[in-house]
């Protein structure tokens, strides 16, 4: 079986020196002079420059030739995330994935029964993601760290079974209940590919990693403990063992937890990221700035930027985080 992790040699020896390590310090739990800020889907559809590229290019081709939102918000973003999608893994395992404009991901042949798992393997290389990471890390010139990411096994499985987004996750949850053993086999295989993919991203130059378990909240506590948590831990542990990333090997497996706005992160010993309702960006700029306090340690939205967001409001949000952290210091 071809490896998901490449041994190809990219130019990973001579990366520019990092000039802004605020995000990395905050993620490690160190005190920082202000809250670092970045935004999920900061490269997405709310940006006219992104939409212009999308008109001419298929989504996964854009992933093969990444663009940068950092130019527009120069000096305001403390982290860059690689332009890709969590669904590159099912794609690499041989499933067809289309990004339908205005609709989102679509799998023409979803995985509806254990029999559909038969022809699964990693048959397509993820080298293009590694190349994109190496090139982007060079192009960033050390402005801020570059984050790699991966979809967590349960979230990936949910898309593969549902065939796209869902409101109820009835098909994916039925699969868990009706084909419990096969579900565990599938989740295990996804965890395996995801862990190797994370290792490859670090080798290629990713300076921190985010694991997106976007649909964790769809599982009750028992199902979460059975179908999500063990595979999150598996990814993390295998990653730490294979690559000896000190931070990930520490007793709390993840250094940072990213939450949406419906949960409270209070009382946790881990660093909190996000937690801000993205609809605040629809408010008038002054209101939007006022709804910021108190920001999580790492300021971010609790969900991705929306296509209808005004790029200027994001500018105000980013400036407000810089200013409010400044005010806290004075
Ligand atoms: O700036 C960035 O963040 C760009 C990179 C990025 C990331 C980190 C994209 C580009 N997607 C993601 C992660 C991602 N993709 C997640 C995890 C984060 C989250 O919970 O939001 C998820 C669940 C997806 C799946 C996905 N891909 C959706 C959601 C569908 C649903 O269930 O509602 C959508 C709409 C996409 C397509 C997509 N991915 C990224 C962009 C910019 C887009 C827009 C589509 C387009 O241009 O056609």
Treating each run of at least 4 consecutive H or I residues as one helix, how many helices?
A: 12
**What name does CATH use for the topology?**
TIM Barrel
Strand content: 5-15%
For the biggest sheet, the summary is: 3 strands, parallel
The chain-level mean pLDDT equals 85
Please state the overall shape, judged from the principal axes of the Cα atoms: globular
Oligomer: single chain
Main location: cytoplasm
Subcellular location: Cytoplasm, Cytosol
Family: Belongs to the uroporphyrinogen decarboxylase family.
InterPro entries: UROD/MetE-like_sf, Uroporphyrinogen_deCO2ase_HemE, Uroporphyrinogen_deCOase
Give the gist of this structure:
The protein is mainly alpha-helical. Helices cover 41% and strands 8% of the residues.
Can you give a write-up of this model?
The structure is a single chain. By secondary structure, the protein is mainly alpha-helical. The chain has a single domain (22-252), classed as Alpha-Beta Barrel (TIM Barrel), CATH 3.20.20.210. Helix content is 41%, strand content 8%. The protein has helices at 22-27, 48-56, 59-64, 88-92, 127-139, 153-162, 170-178, 180-204, 221-243, 246-249, 285-290, 311-329, and strands at 80-81, 98-100, 104-106, 146-151, 208-212, 256-259, 271-274. It has a three-stranded parallel sheet with strand order 1-4-5. It is globular. 38% of the residues are buried. The protein binds coproporphyrinogen I. Coproporphyrinogen I (1CP) binds at residues 40-45, 54, 59, 81, 83-86, 99, 101, 104-105, 149, 165, 212, 214, 303-304. It comes from Linderina pennispora. GO terms for molecular function: uroporphyrinogen decarboxylase activity.
